[in-house]
Amino acid sequence: MWPIVTLALALPLAAARTPEEIAQNARWLVHQTTWGYLTTLDAHTKVPVGDTLSFSDGALDHSTGRFFFYVMGDYTAAAPQGLPCAFTLSQASLMHNATLDPEDPRCAKLTASGILRKSEGEDVQLGKEALFARHPQMKHWPASHHFAVHELQLSEVWMIDMYGGGENISLDVFWAAQPRHTTPWAASSRSSVLQPGSKPPPWSQLADRARWLVAHSVWAALGTSSVRRPGMAWGNVRSVADGVGTNSTGLPMLYVPTPDPSSADLAADARAVLTMSEAGLPAPGSGSCGETEDPICARITLSGRLRVLNATELLDAEERMKVKHPLAPWLATGGAHTGGQYFTIELENITFLDFYGGPSNLTVAQYLAAAAPQVVSKEIIV
Prior knowledge:
- The chain is α+β, with helices and mostly antiparallel strands.
- The protein has 8 helices and 15 strands.
- It has helices spanning 4-9, 19-32, 122-134, 171-176, 206-216, 261-268, 311-324, 364-369; strands at residues 35-41, 48-54, 67-72, 83-90, 109-118, 147-160, 167-169, 190-196, 219-225, 233-241, 253-257, 271-277, 299-308, 340-353, 375-381.
- The strands form 3 sheets. Strands 1, 2, 3, 4, 5, 6 and 7 form a 7-stranded antiparallel sheet that branches. Strands 9-10-11-14-13-12 form a 6-stranded antiparallel β-barrel. The protein has a two-stranded antiparallel ribbon with strand order 8-15.
- A hairpin with a 7-residue loop joins strand 9 and strand 10 (233-241).
- The protein is globular.
- Residues 18-172, 204-368 form the CREG-like beta-barrel domain.
- Keywords: Signal.
């Protein structure tokens, strides 16, 4: 087995960072990324719900540490006091020729929790300036859709960006920090890219397009109901694998380490959602993701219950991980030294959006019956 600790010892030791330096790296990640995964709980069933949203914390080199969104005016209508949510970012969204696996601790992952509220007063103009600077297409979105500036009002910022586990960052320290990449570990000397075996299927083939997206995705946001924060959703980045070659099943497998907050959540309530976007593909997709929130940049949520794999399925999972995650060898050899479990999803609902007019009418049965796409993995020594 290749545990995480073995990889850590193979690298030069670095001095421990101060809380301020950790906050600087969090601010760097927030400022560099332009989209992430929003997780909420359904108001009635309390089932986790996922979405893909663009955001901005300010024009380049003018970071504010505030999370602004441009969403339809009724986005928070069902929650007049604001929508409790978790917004998850990954450094993987910045690295399409990956030198770190999305699940590698050095590939920074941040979850900002709080309440999403419609902005008022001067914050509306401040939010528009921040959003339009990073997402110029938003200026031309149709007025008939009543897009409005919203802000995630923070109650917690959690991040993992190196070995030793994730941690909360004091909001005062987070807001006082200036963006600076402070992760002390060097990246791998290898890179890994999953190349499409074919172009995305035609727009009319909804099920095939959905399966194409899931098969090519190597990471997702895992949305759960939080144990640490009762009544709140939690989102976290996990590496996923949906089959090898043409053996795609449409049901991703994933590994969750025992110390991870998601592990405690799943032990208490196995209902979960996996959210994936074409913008997160490690290799160019259909070329439709000039703006992540544009409907033609495909996104999908797979909702259901996460189930621990049996012994036979575990062998399949390790083979999938070996092919799709060569930069994270521990995923193919029993997992991290901390312990953990491999899961798949018992699929109950799908939301798939890849064109204008709202989510498609795609059923679980249609999705599972679609043909498996071809995926090719290439590992490159650089």
